[in-house]
Amino acid sequence: VVFRWPGETSSPRAGGAGAAAPSDTDRPVAPPQPAVPAEVISPGPAAAAVPQTGAGTFTYGTTTGPVLGGAGTLRRFYIAVENGIDQDAEAFGMAVETILGDSRSWIAGQDVRFQRVPKSTSSQFAMVLATPTTSEKMCATAGLQTRKYTSCRLPNKVVINLARWLTATETYNASVEVYRAYAVNHEVGHELGHGHEACPGSGKPAPVMLQQTLGLRGCVANPWPYLDGTRYAGADIP
């Protein structure tokens, strides 16, 4: 099931966020994330100030950014920020663009490039910033149980939970900026077909596809899929 924006018709625009996802032969589908254990959810005082509910409608970015990366399939994305949450779509778009354009992000593999575009332009996926309540509803359309805590990836949409974007988690042991890079790279990793991975050993960097929001499992926080120019990964989690 694909979440539709308010005002969208049942006929998605060609190549846009409402379009059908590529077939399994084109791009592997990442396995769904499990429900969030109740004991993990510990908002803390900072999270209490985060809006839990927004308008349920969205403002869209209007910027066409540079192509990020030197080689590979070009995947365009547009920006959507929920209304009523005091967050700017262009600022969120710039943050996402900076993360995906980093030399340690997915572009390091030379098999994918990214470009930020307006919603009216043909695109492959959306980057969405939404409140815990709205993100939970969106993620639930694909059967994902986020308990208003985690972010998720839907067909052609990456949904970032506002509370995690603003406050990270109490157990992350790194700055909010580092967590934001992790959240974007992790969910975009799912968009690219990557599944979850395990911590390779105590004290080692966490693979970006480890569910770091739910705990580091002995690893050290790491927001990047490439370290020293090499893809850094843990064992696949079935």
Tell me about this structure.
There is one protein chain. The chain has 238 residues and is α/β, with parallel strands linked by helices. It has a domain of 153 residues: Collagenase (Catalytic Domain) (3-Layer(aba) Sandwich). 20% of the residues lie in helices and 15% in strands. It has 5 helices and 8 strands; from the N terminus they run H-E-E-H-E-E-H-E-E-H-H-E-E. The strands form 2 sheets. Strands 1, 2, 3, 4, 5 and 6 form a 6-stranded mixed beta sheet that branches. The protein is globular, with a radius of gyration of 17 Å. The relative contact order is 0.17.
Entry summary:
20% of the residues lie in helices and 15% in strands.
What key attributes describe this structure?
two-stranded antiparallel ribbon, alpha/beta, six-stranded mixed sheet, 238 residues, disordered N terminus, single chain, globular, Collagenase (Catalytic Domain), 5 helices
CATH topology-level name of one domain = Collagenase (Catalytic Domain)
Whole-number mean pLDDT: 86
Please report the first level of CATH classification, the CATH class of one domain. Alpha Beta
Q: Which value, in Å, is the CA radius of gyration?
A: 17 Å
What letter string, H or E per element, gives the SSE order? HEEHEEHEEHHEE
Proportion in helices: 10-25%
| Contiguous runs where pLDDT drops below 50 for at least 5 residues | 1-45
Number of helices: 5
Tell me the structural class: alpha/beta
Beta-sheet strand percentage? 15-25%
- Biggest sheet, in brief? 6 strands, mixed
Topology diagram in text:
Layout: H1 44-48, E1 58-60, E2 73-82, H2 89-100, E3 112-116, E4 125-130, H3 132-140, E5 152-154, E6 157-161, H4 162-167, H5 176-191, E7 226-227, E8 230-231
Parallel strand pairs: 2-3, 2-4, 4-6
Antiparallel strand pairs: 1-2, 5-6, 7-8
